[in-house]
Amino acid sequence: MAAPRSVLLLSGKRKSGKDFVAEELRSRLGPDVCTILRLSGPLKEQYAKEHGLDFERLLDASAYKERFRQDMIRWGEEKRRADPGFFCRAAVRGALQPVWVVSDTRRLSDVEWFRDTYGDVVQTVRVVATEETRKRRNWVFVTGVDDAESECGLDQGVAFDWVITNDGDEVALGEQLEELVQSLHRSL
Fold first, then answer.
1. What is the pLDDT of residues 26-56, one digit of tens each?
2. Within the chain, where are the H helices?
3. The model scores a pTM over 0.70
């Protein structure tokens, strides 16, 4: 595994568009330069193995995943308490591109692990969307999910390097992403 030149830690509320922003960044930088890493992938894979579930169905935005979400959150928190870097190490395994975009950073312990491991190449990116926009994207508040650490863990305690507003204005989003991409090009 080559050391990354830049690591972007994306965070934001459910339905803010973190995955969309990550895909846009990879598209603009190219797949040879940028890879998307997901902390939830290793979590869901291990959870599926230990609970006899369909890993592929836990990856999509289905009712199947939602049925297990709260228990998966609880289980993941237990794993993190025992080893805060467990899912981070699993996510970066095999990453070769110079730019890594972690599309689902949710906890301060994740930010701290990446900063401790990769230092100054780490930048935090908050993806924001109004509650109205999120509702248009089919977000509905779920007690035990939207008020849990997995959704609120980075609401305070992090001074974000970038804040990307993703409320459906393609021009404004494009301008914000272009500024971030230009900054990344300078680090390559």
1. 999 999 999 999 998 899 999 999 999 999 9
2. 18-29, 40-51, 55-59, 63-82, 86-92, 108-118, 131-136, 149-152, 170-187
3. yes
